[in-house]
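Appendix B. Extra example for self-study. Work through it before the problem class; the solution is given directly after the inputs so you can check yourself.
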Amino acid sequence: MAVTVRRPKLNWSERLYLPAIAGGMAITMRHFKNMLLGRTKVTMQYPEERWDAHMPEYYRGAPALVKDASGRERCVACQLCEFICPPRAIRITAGELPSTDRFAKVEKYPYEFDIDMLRCIYCGMCEEVCPEQAIFLRKDYAITGFTRKEMVHDKEKLLEIGGVMHGLVLKWNEKK
Amino acid sequence: MVTLGDYLLVSGLLFTIGFAGVMLRRNIIIIFMSLELMLNAANLSLVAFSRFRVQPDGLPNYHAQVFVFFIITVAAAEVAVGLAIIVALYRARRTTHVEDIATLKF
Amino acid sequence: MLLFIVFVPIAVALLILAGAPARASAVAASGAVLLATLLAFAGFDGGHAGYQLVTSRLVSADWGIHLAFGIDGLSLIMLLLTSLVTFAAVWFTPSIPEHENAFYACLLLMAGGALGAFASIDLFFFYAFHELALIPTFLLIGIWGTGNRQTAAWKITIYLATGSFILLIGLLLLYRSLPEAARSFDFRLLQKTAGQIPAGMQHHIYLLLLIGFGILISLFPFHTWAPQAYASAPAPAAMLHAGVLKKFGLYGLLRIAIPLLPEGARYWTGLLLVLLLGNIIYVGLVTIAQKRLDWMLGYSSVMHMGYIFLGIAAGNIVGANGAALLMLAHGLSIAVLFAVAGEIRGRTGTLVFSDLGGLAKVMPFAGLVFGLATFAAIGLPGFANFSAEVMVFFGAFHVGADLQHFHAFQVTTVLALWGVVISAVYMLRAYRTIFMGSASEASASATDIGTNLRPPIFLLVGAMLWVGFFPQSLVGRMQGSWRTSFPGK
Amino acid sequence: MPPFLFWFFALMTLGFGAGVIINRSPIGSALSLVLSFIGLSTLFLSLNAYFISVIQVLVYAGAVMVLFLFIIMLLDLRAEERRKINVVAFAGGAAVALALFVQVYRIIGALGAARQAFPPLRSGNTDDVRRVGLLLFANYNLPFQIVGVLVLVATIGVIVLSKRELR
Amino acid sequence: MDYFLIGTSLAKIAGLLAVVLGIMNYSVYAERRISALIQDRLGPNRVGPAGLLQPIADAFKFLLKEDFTPGHVNKFYYWLAPCLAMIPAIATLAVVPFGSTLFGVPMVIADINVGVLYVFAIASLGVYGIVLAGWSSNSKYPFLGGIRSSSQMISYELSLGLAVIPIFLVAGQLRLTSIVRFQIEHGWMIAPFIGDWTNIGKWLLAVPMLVSFLVFTIAIFAETNRLPFDLPEAETELVGGYHTEYGSMKFGLFFLGEYIAMITGSAIIVTLFLGGWHLPLPSWHGGFHWAVVNGSAPGWRGIIGGIFNIACFFAKVAALLFIFIWVRWSLPRFRYDQLMRLGWVFFFEIALVNIFVVAVIVAYISK
Amino acid sequence: MQAAVLEISALVLGIFLLLCEAFAGALDKRRLAYGGIFGLGLILLASFFVTAGPLQPDAVGFWSFYAADPLALFFKRFALATTMLVLIMMLESAPRIQSGLGEFFALPIFTCAGLMWMASAIDFVMIFVSLELVTMSFYVLVAYTRRNPVTLEAGVKYLILSALSTGFLVYGITWVFGVTGETSLARVAAAFSQPNLERAPALFGAVLILVGLGFKIAAVPFQIWVADVYQGAPTAVTAYLSVGSKAAGFVVLLRVLSAFFILPQVQRLLVAVAIATLIYGNLAALPQTNLKRLLGYSSIAHAGYLLVGVVSFSGAAVGFYLVSYLLMTLLSFTVLIVVANSAGGEEISDFDGLSKRSPFLALAMMISMLSLAGVPFTAGFFGKFMVFDAAIQQHQTALVVVAVVTVACGFYYYLKVIRAMYWESPARAAPIAFSQLSRVTMTGLMIAIITLGVYPQPILRALSDASHPVTAQR
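Solution. Structure tokens for the complete assembly:
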């Protein structure tokens, strides 16, 4: 339904519009002046200034593989994350651990572990589903690259981002 | 050396071109432009004569230039009215072509 | 008096247009004019050389134009003719189905124009009044005519307009070729100063006047409008035009061309003779070939103009007297003829010879009158035409007569005499086919002209007879005018 | 102005002038006309008529031709398709125009002054605006006022002819 | 042939062009920067120190973009239009005196006696570029933009012309240098009472002159299609207006043409109303009065004076440019019918009446 | 009182009407016309208190452009009277005007001012400017009913051809200026009589000027616009065009020729033009069935007669002819408007049986037609009379012959209208309604036509003063 807006009746000085115009100009001028004198708060100058310090705990950044305190790659190539990943960003090629390995009983390790960051939607499902606490969403953002290939994080990259995490359940360690 | 005759020749040619446009073209707008050419040819002659007839005080005969001023003014007004008529005609008839304007015949 | 004569018809015409009872006013007006004319006639001094009853009003000082009226013998006769024919024509008007008022108004305007033209002694108004009469003619033929009336109306208008304008040029030229000081539109002054026009100029002017007047008179070869117009015109209009208006040209020749331009007249005599013979012989033969009464009358009227021209061409007093009388006589007789023809058409619905016959039995009065008029037209003694034609022939025969060899005039006169025979042939033939023999289908049911229509006919026939027996009553009154027009003779 | 410049601008004036009537697209004609006018105004400059020259550009190129352009665009007149030319009319028109030019040419030939150079001015930098203005307002006041009325009439006319009709 | 004249003229042209093009580039920058500041932003500050190299980056962007010609346009006029948009604005500068003298050479390229008229004449040619661009694009938004623009420019040219007439009345000159000189001697047009403080008439005159100045300035706004009169390219209605179909450097020419027109307009305002290159300063000879600092002084002082005058001029232009920008980011856009009514029914009449007021004052009061 | 007051008051009147139109919104626009008629009447009255003065050929400024001689005064009155009558006609045709009625009534007043200036113009600049003022307002008036394509076509034709003629006029003036260095008629005449005059260019300029003027007065071969424009334009405008514009054209022609007749070729040229105009106008009028068009051609024919007067140097004849032409043309157009309003068309057949539907209109039309044809006792006759007389005085035999023949032609087509009115039977019987003002006007015109046909002295006297300066040149 149309609503008729009643136009205000203007008197002659208002109809001159000049005071209004001057007022408007004054307002913009005030802003300009304040800006020049640095009194106005301005937006953060992003690349130089960052907000990282204020990031909340629950921030979901780039997914990453972690190593535990003993330096072991936690991933056992169970492929649950690959399975759950909604955009199918994760691709895992499993490899068999050589029997010589200290954790040979784990049997598998990811031979390749690629996350296509162009597809990743930072949903955190992989982290949630991981039975091994191997994959985590870290606080990294602004994932950039010049080529598509660069944007695919391979295992080295993931481990590099993930780093070492302490305080995890170490179920594969030999019981003392 | 450029003589008065040269200017008059240019003016005459311009006048002829304008006149030929009026005679040969069939689009009213173009005809109208040709008419402007004719008026301007006259202006050129006038200014040339004005420059040629130097007064005793060593200045051109400015009377001719005043006349040119009048011609220009009148021509401008004429164009305004003329184009208004042409537009009105176009609205009514969707044409500016002379041969389409023949409701009135002998 | 003259103002009254001229302006009563015009004024009454306007009144009728404005809604006055048409017939009554018209008859009254024409009657009054007739009375006034007769009064003027009675009071006219025949021996007096100049104009009488002169009235003059200045119209344009720059041009010296006056609204001036005056009469001499010649104009007196013309006025008489006009008022007689007008009265007859108005009386004779049948009941008009539509626009009765306009019809009468037109008639009166015509009459007023003719009267004005004849009574004017100012060149300008002389011309202007005639033109005034032309337009009603056009309307009368165009609106109330019969047959192919539109063509006829066109033809007459175009012819007469052209003629008038040629005439106008002639008159202007005449006016302009006078020396500056002597320029005037006044006849009286013109007659004094006309001699100053150089001969070469006279030739030009006379030719223009001859052609201009000639067209108005239906001079051969400019005559073709006349028969058709008369055939189409309603009877009163035909009466007025053939009887009166056409005489304007002749009057003009007599009044202006001959006296003012004697050199020109002499110069063009040969041409005029040839043309008038054309009128008499050629048109006469054409007349014989006609199959309808109205056309025949029209052509006969054209033919008779030839005689009048002859009298005028003669350029002497006898001839001029004859011409003037013949104008009157012809006007009267042709008026009667047209009147009767109109009645016949009204009663039988046709004027084609082959459809008519034996009308004398059912229309004895018409037969009588028509017979009288026929005789008059042929020029039998006792009628006006006879005395007039005799004078014309004598006058013409006299010109340049020496007994050694025949001059052109003599040849012409002899040839013209044959015209009388021609006219006798066609008039009598017409009379026979219409009134004698066995009654045709169309004429069987016709009735005679009623008594209410007889007075004007009596009047006209009476006038014809009177002039035939007493031509001197008119001729005597003209002597004064000839003294100025033909001073030498 | 040196002759070569004169002929250059004269040719510009004439060439684009001819362009007006040769061009089949009205826009092309209009732009030709603008250029022709600009050439003309340079010719005026060469005749020490600065005021007229500037007025020429101001009024013709700046206002009149814009109006033309405007109308052409508004009416969306594209290049004309080739119509069948009435040969007789065309030849007749051309002949008349040619005859006119021949006449003008002969008249110029007959004019004795046509072969003379321009007499020198007192100084090249004439104060022509002031002088034309003085003449205009003092001497030619009456025609000037009439032109004012004329413009008023034209204004009324244009408004009347183009304002939306009341329904 | 006067080689000295030609040489100095060429030098002046080159110099002026360099300066003006520089100003133009930096006015783009300034526009962005000032708009940012007004809107509590920072604006371009990346390229170079404080973003000062941004114009160069912009230029490279224009030049390096793909030069695309749409298939449906009228090729010839499509290419012609941007050129036509640029030329008049630059050509106008020829008559503007941008300084007093330097080395005895007057700092104006062509000192013609019909200067102001020349300005109008050339400025009136600016319409062609826009109109042709709109028409030749063969597309409805550009067309509407072109039509709007040309009618707007024609309409406001009237007020523009009428607003100048008071200046002629006061100065009695059309030559721009003479007008500047007049202002130096009799006070700026905007404040005619200067130097003749006791004359009531001159004080009275200041009022209509101010009106004239305002009308003129506003008309210049409209002429240059600046907000609040940027109807031809009203994005919300017409996408990009007459240059919707243009890209890369062809668009760049329109864009820069607009800024040059702005500069030219400012220069003319400065010349006509704000005393041109003149700045009242203490005299070189001591004492404070409205003396002239100019290039006519002998020796190095003349050179410095001349340069100072030029600087003065461009400083005033820059100040006006700032106002242009300031207004743009303060006022909303008019509706088209409002714009036209404003021009014809308001400014036109004001300018007209103003002429008579000035005439009366000049003739009877301020003698 | 100075003569210039007349134009100024007309101007003020026009502007006043415009302001009324603009600011008195609720006003009945017809009131404006009444106001205009009244105002013009006042000015006409005032014109009789204006002092006429001789030409001042040596003056500078105002008086070098403006003549207040009796000729000018006469034509000023003429223009005023014409405009008044045209306004009355416009009132009658007001219902056909879709918009801008107020302007429609105001424009003729400006035109009238232009006509008056034209009458006084004695300098080519002034002639040009005032002529253009008149032309400009006619552009607008002709195309006024712009819903009607026919009107617009007429407007366009008038526009193009008139502008063309302006081009010729201007170019001609250029050449005359080039040869003489003058634009003032008196000084041009003086320069033309110098023995060292360059004949060919001077003649060329004169001819071009005559071509330009020939367009305005519709002389053959520059008449091509006339019929179409007359037919297409609103009838009142047609009347105005055929009377006002033409009269002004002739007064200018008279003035210009007083300078040009020093060149003998000019007169020969004009004779040829007059003959062609007479023949073309009359012959082309013959087959017409549209009355407006017929009147258009007839106006060409009348231009021919007027040219005869011009060629014979008779200002009086031209003046009287124009007066009579004014009366009869306006009368016929008034009737035409009234009839066309009721019949919806301007064909001659729309006049069929008019005598039955409205005897008054039929009578009025008849009188005007008779006068146009040149029947005595009408003003038209006296006009022709004087023109022929003047021609005879100058021994222009060829002209006179042609004129006489064409007069006869004229009878044919004018009487065609009378025939339709009186002979044919009407298609509709309904009587025709028209305003009282029109009735009064028509009656007045009829009386004037007849009166002038019988008693032309008043006009002649006015003209004998007026024609003096023109004939004095010879």
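Self-check: The mean pLDDT of chain D is 82. If your reasoning did not lead you there, revisit section 3.
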